[in-house]
What we know:
Structural class: alpha+beta
Amino acid sequence: MAATLVEIFNRALTKIGETEFLTVSTGNTSIAGKTCELHWADIRDEVLSDFPWPFANRQKAIVVDATESRTGWEYAFTLPTDFLMARFLHTQDTRIALVAPESRDAYEIALNEDGDGKLLFCDYAAADIQALEYTAQVTDVTLYSAAFCDAVSWRLAVELALALPKDERKAGAALQMYKQKILEAFAQQLRGNREDYEPLEGSGIRARE
């Protein structure tokens, strides 16, 4: 059964020992509710980016934006509106990893000149690229896996520990548990013989972004 957003919030509360639960995910007046609402979107995107969750994996063709340019790069490609994290470029002959350390200087993600969209700058010609594989910004909670719900609730628990009991020890413990959940997700992936990815060093790691 899919989790609801308020259930994720309440799971995060239990992880720091809180027993007074929320009944709704929006419009809360309590510190716990306001904290969850304030941090949710950023934390959701952070956790989505920290691991290639299958439910958030997308492949789409990308097109050259001839109106944009960036010193040091030959081409600029428009990214999907739900783009969060680049994973692979698919060409006719190969699948180019964009998350390995040695590939992080092979492209750049940046805002366009109008500031209303992101672009991928690289030296791969449009004729060579068939599709971009990426992590999408998934806002529909019913699509989330159980492992993602667990991980994101641990990450949200960090903010709750700092806002409610103001307990840095609990916050630190919750952060360590979150990191452990991400490592466990990578380990599970490797056991499934999908060895394309390397564990990220932390949220927000991008190639020259």
